[in-house]
Amino acid sequence: MAKLTKKQKEANAKLDSSKVYNLNEASALIKEITNVNFDASVDLAIRLGVDPRKANQMVRGVVTLPHGTGKDVKVLALVTPDKEAEATAAGADYVGLDEYLQKIKGGWTDVDVIITMPSVMGKLGPLGRILGPRGLMPNPKTGTVTMDVAKAVKDVKAGKIDFKVDKTGIVHAAIGKTSFDAEKIAENANELIQTIVKLKPTTAKGTYIKSVFMSSTMSPSVAVDVKSV
After folding, report:
1. Alpha carbon of 45 to those of 28, 191, 209, 211: distances in Å?
2. Is 169 left (phi over 0), alpha (psi -120 to 50) or beta?
């Protein structure tokens, strides 16, 4: 077993692993127990009482975090020439079509989100093997396939994220940075949790939200009291 560093021991001393914390307490504590030399990401892991293998229990959606993610999201807009100026003005980092399709075919995926138009989706189909595993394939359900390209770009830049329950029944999402005030971390976390609550499948039985854990890059996990949210 690896030996704990001095910083890890200090972090563990501040955390009572037998306790569950309300959202405000967890958000403040996560800032205290993070000891890295960069602005760490704050993440939530929400275990749901659903069976993701059943299509009618798949939980997936989008949420705009009130304080953004703190991350500079790189956006590629795959659009026709008549939409290029609109996408550029909205803040897209890369704008074009065929030249970027060729780059992706060559293995280039140095972006966080791809936004495109319905008429372009046919060209993206053959790239599914590259984009799918990286979570980059545009999807109308997440608002990344749309004719209103400018709004989609602005929403993503402002802190709109999409989430999806994984095969083990857990939703993982980054909801901010440790440089955020604890209040902002809590508000972002609450926005995500409430959105997931609204998406509860009618076929899901028993306890829907089983557990919520908050952590930051390389920090211990903090158990959040489900009743507090």
Report:
1. 17, 14, 11, 8
2. left
Of 5, 53, 28, 19, nearest to 225 (Cα)? Answer: 19
Q: What is the pLDDT of residue 226?
A: 92
Q: Which two tokens stand for residue 7?
A: 């910083």
What is the DSSP secondary structure assignment for residue 93, as one 8-state letter? Answer: S
For residue 147, the number of C-alpha atoms closer than 13 Å in the C-beta half-sphere is 1
Could you report how far apart the first and last alpha carbons of the chain are, in Å? 36
Maximum separation of any 2 CA atoms in the chain, in Å: 59
Integer angstrom CA distances of residue 26 from 14, 21, 143, 190: 12, 6, 31, 12
User: Is residue 205 predicted with pLDDT exceeding 70?
Assistant: yes
Order across the sheet with 113-116: list the strands: 94-96, 75-78, 113-116
Residue whose structure tokens are 């890059």: 217
159/147 Cα distance (integer angstroms): 20
> Cα–Cα distance between 35 and 10 in angstroms, integer?
9
Q: Using the predicted structure, report yes or no on whether residue 12 has a pLDDT greater than 70.
A: no
* Mean per-residue pLDDT, 30-55: 93
The per-residue pLDDT for range 127-165, each reduced to its tens digit, is 999 999 998 999 998 899 999 999 999 999 988 888 999
**How many CA atoms lie within 13 Å of 114's alpha carbon, on the beta-carbon side?**
28
